Amino acid sequence: MQIIDPFNYINDNDGSRHMHAEGVSLNFLATKAGTPLYVYSYQALTERYNTLKKVLPDSLICYSVKANGNISIVNSLAQLGAGADVVSGGELKRAITAGVETKKIVFSGVGKTELEMAAALSANILQINIESEPELELLNKISLEKGVIAPVAVRVNPDVDANTHDKISTGRQEDKFGIPYKDAIYLYSKIKELKGLESVGLATHIGSQLISLEPFRKAFKKLTQLALTLKTSGHNIRSLDFGGGLGINYSGELEPNINDYAKIIKAAGDEAGCQVILEPGRFIAGPSGILLTRVIYVKRTEARTFAIVDCAMNDFMRPTLYNAWHKVELVSQQKNKVDTETVDIVGPICESGDFIAKDRDLPPLSSGTLLSIKDAGAYGASMSSYYNSRLPAGEVIVSGNEWDIIKKRQSLEDLIGLENFAHWQKNSVKEQ
Ligand SMILES: *Cc1c(COP(=O)(O)O)cnc(C)c1O
């Protein structure tokens, strides 16, 4: 199934071509909103969500907020009927602020605090996915204090290798996530004893950026069997939460076929007689956004050519963190074909690990050249930091010929304003 790419070139009268986000020129957006700038396409978000919904109409799709938690993005999906998968009290707040129905919110994560669980119970969300026995006990205590019954699912670690990057593989025995498969039955009997808890389902999430469907098949099969065993023992397993993890095509990877993925899920859900919950993040948000950046300088040394751009690892961590490969394109291309040059695209941060792309053959770059970093909509803005006292990139969304700013640029005053001198330093700085 081919889903549209909203970031396309439109030809100008003089034969040059310029990349647009849907109907809006990226040159225009860079001038209006500055760089670095995340640009998202509403149409792409919608199409990608609807593609999944169409092949799995009976599943509850809980968008994984950590992929991109901007409230405008989450609201776009909530309007289409999506729920949310959150992994912190902050994400819970975002999802509710963005208009996600609380009865469509799933709370995952290995380290939920007392405050976070209390917030989830107050919001009356769909379910809390439990990842350890102490967590189960604490949630029970909070529920009893509040006089409520917490709807829980145990996140099981099926010990299946997702064959993805080590840092985003979560379903192997040695990973910190979930409850070992063999301990699940014990935990469900414990849930039954504890008066503040009620079992509603079973959950898993084996990793992110999966390219092969085989690990999904293995893990879901194990989960289905466990669900049937639990049901036979009288536990209430209404839903199976299969997590997220669908991979996307960053550098020519063959994306999993959505129909085949849906088939595996449907079969597993049917066999277990359960409603299916999914938690896709990257699949929906990744290709729906790009990061726009401008070349500050080009530095040619004997060894290499560096294009130093105005975005860096604080804006976009994936290359540094995972050695991720993202396609980089010139926003404006001239009519005549030019010889390319091999460049490393790097940020201004004082770390050699601060790179965006290495060894790329691109038309010669110069100061001011605008570049588009593709597939940056997931785990881009949401992973940004303030390192080197850099302010995070702005964010805009486009729909047809319309656009709007969905995250303002902060000021340095905002950044430094959270800090203060210790009380004994108060008079040591002269008024400027
Ligand atoms: C990160 C995460 C997801 C989303 O993963 P994607 O690969 O972005 O689809 C879903 N569920 C849980 C529990 C997660 O931690």
List keywords for this structure.
Lyase, Ornithine Decarboxylase, Chain A, domain 1, TIM Barrel, 12 helices, 22 strands, 8-stranded parallel β-barrel, alpha/beta, 25% strand, 2 domains, 432 residues, binds pyridoxal-5'-phosphate, 9-stranded mixed sheet
Write the layout of secondary structure elements.
Blueprint: E1 7-11, E2 17-21, E3 24-25, H1 26-33, E4 37-41, H2 42-55, E5 60-64, H3 71-79, E6 83-86, H4 89-97, E7 105-107, H5 114-123, E8 127-130, H6 133-146, E9 150-157, E10 179-180, H7 184-193, E11 197-203, H8 214-232, E12 239-241, H9 258-272, E13 275-278, H10 282-285, E14 289-300, E15 305-309, H11 318-322, E16 328-330, E17 332-333, E18 341-346, E19 355-362, E20 370-373, E21 394-399, E22 402-407, H12 412-416
The protein binds pyridoxal-5'-phosphate.
Pyridoxal-5'-phosphate (PLP) binds near residues 280 and 282.
